[in-house]
Amino acid sequence: MAIVLDPKEFLEMGKTLPMVDVRTPAEFENGHIPGAHNLPIFTNDERVVVGTKYKRAGKDSAVLLGLEIVGPKLALFVKKAKKIAPDKKILVHCWRGGMRSGSMAWLFETAGFTVYLLKGGYKAYRACNREEFARKAKIIILGGMTGSGKTEVLHEMIKMGHQVLDLEGVANHKGSVFGALGQPNQPTNENFENELAQLWSKFDFNKCIWIEDESNSVGGVWINDVLFSQMRNADVIKMEIPKEERIKRLVKEYACFEIDVLKGLISKIEKRLGGLNVKNAFQSLDEGDFYTVADISLTYYDKAYLHGQQKRKDQTVYPLALEKDEPKENAKSILEFYSQLQK
Fold it and tell me: Among 7, 90, 210, 249, which has the minimal tally of Cβ within 10 Å of its Cβ?
């Protein structure tokens, strides 16, 4: 008989044993446990057909139809499982820990596998993630206006052994209207949250966790409200980098992209930037004057950042003046500054 595990036990065993998600490819693509293999009992279309049969003719008819569909696939399922888990130890789950995972567990056990089932399925895993994000953590927010190099500073902190939840790295987006440039496609919202949960589970909650200052969305994905609430109640170390330095960074990051692409993105913030500013930005792009374009763009982003900061009612913001855009040195200065604040 399959061994049933709660989500935490299942994830712990998943560090050494392969996980198989038997939901449809569409369900898997929308959201899955990081590292899981998709071995769907039904294709997307087959699931619809069985579901329709259930609604129209009842459970018994739907089960018989399901068996007719799955029967010819049984040997293939076992062959694939042996490739995924050559040691014949495997973790299996579906949406709610019901018939799909139970049926696949029976098949694998019949084929000589030791099978572990996720109690409550993927739904229980998602609920467990939210509970974990609610754990009280010592979060420190790294703030600073656009172009301050916050992400690079956090990466330097990681090299120094500090804990960082890299929201933009997981989101494949830098947060602004230009944030998708040069980035892979963004994950689905569920997969974004699942990846964050995996990183979150590895942290030592007796130590600080550094997170970049973000709104509740990073491009097209959203930070779940449980984590975002903790972020909004955390102290902020605000990097204050001269505008000249920030403009240089933006030119370095974005001047390599096609002019028409940059114009299209600037057009998206025309209402906030103003028609005259957009016109001047377009002219500057045509002339290859990326410095002016960055300067104009910061007119909007600096105001937006200050507006966002005013919403922080329960936070303490500690400004730190830094002369240059030097991520490694700035990381050292920020850590020293924070250390002094604790004394």
Answer: 249
Q: What is the mean pLDDT of residues 74-97?
A: 97
Of the candidate ranges 56-60, 112-116, 277-281, the one whose mean pLDDT is the lowest: 56-60
Q: Chain-wide mean pLDDT for the chain? A: 94
Number of domains within the chain: 2
Same domain, 102 and 227: no
Q: Quick one: 142 exposed, middle or buried, by C-beta within 10 A (0-12, 13-18, 19+)?
A: buried
Judge if 182 and 327 occupy the same domain.
yes
225-274 tens-digit pLDDT: 999 999 999 999 999 999 999 999 999 999 999 999 999 999 999 988 89
HEC assignment per residue over 11-64: HHHCCCCCEEECCCHHHHHHCCCCCCEECCCCCHHHHHHHHHHHHHHCHHHHHH
CATH of residue 47: 3.40.250.10
For residue 314, the model assigns a pLDDT of: 62
- Sequence-distant (6+) residues with CB within 8 A of 216 are 222, 223, 225, 228
Q: What share of the chain is helix, strand, coil (3-state, %, to 5)?
A: 55, 15, 30
Residue 10 in contact with residue 18, Cβ under 8 Å?
Answer: no
What is the span of the domain harbouring residue 209?
136-341
Nearest-angstrom CA–CA distance, 132 and 339:
27
Are both 318 and 265 inside the same structural domain?
yes
Residue 208 a catalytic site member:
no
Q: Which of 94, 128, 208, 256 is catalytic?
A: 94
Give the confidence band of 313 by pLDDT, cuts at 50, 70, 90. Answer: low
CATH number for the domain harbouring residue 308: 3.40.50
- Tell me: do 124 and 152 sit in the same domain: no
Q: Are residues 49 and 159 in the same domain?
A: no
145 and 100 belong to one structural domain: no
What is the pTM (predicted TM-score) of this model? 0.93
